[in-house]
Amino acid sequence: MAMSPDGKHIYISALDSTGLRLLCCIPVSGGNPEKIWQDKTHFIAGLSIHPEGKKIALSLWEPGTEIRAIENLTVEVDKIYLIDE
């Protein structure tokens, strides 16, 4: 959820009854939400409105799992951050 810079609208992400992911704009004064973006596969993870109110940045998350194994992590981190004495 985010407020427009002028304080006149609220932007909110939602999920409709069919599973469609939505970005809606709702006037603070009341009224029906206006759908401004929709997608079937990506969730809206973050929302940021430009100070002029003319652009919106969305961070999207796609369902799925990723597992990584990193061997010798401590050794590699030490190479970067340890200062030779």
Number of domains: 1
User: Based on CA inertia axes, which overall geometry fits?
Assistant: elongated
Low-pLDDT runs: none
Give the ordered list of helices and strands: EEEEEEH
Task: Give the end-to-end Cα distance, rounded to a whole number of Å.
Answer: 50 Å
Total beta-strand segments: 6
Helix content: 10-25%
Average pLDDT across residues?
85
Radius of gyration: 20 Å
Going by helix content, strand content and strand pairing, the class is mainly beta
Question: Helix tally?
Answer: 1
Biggest sheet features? 4 strands, antiparallel
Biggest sheet strand line-up? 1-2-3-4
Beta-strand content estimate: 35-45%
Topology summary:
Blueprint: E1 2-3, E2 9-15, E3 21-27, E4 34-39, E5 43-49, E6 56-61, H1 73-81
Antiparallel strand pairs: 1-2, 2-3, 3-4, 5-6
Mind explaining what this structure looks like?
The protein is mainly beta and 85 residues long. The chain has one domain (2-81). It has one helix at residues 73-81; strands at 2-3, 9-15, 21-27, 34-39, 43-49, 56-61. The strands form 2 sheets. A 4-stranded antiparallel β-sheet has the order 1-2-3-4, with no helix packed on it. Strands 5-6 form a two-stranded antiparallel ribbon. The termini are far apart.
Tell me briefly what this model is:
This protein has 85 residues and is mainly beta. 11% of the residues lie in helices and 41% in strands.
List keywords for this structure.
mainly beta, single chain, 85 residues
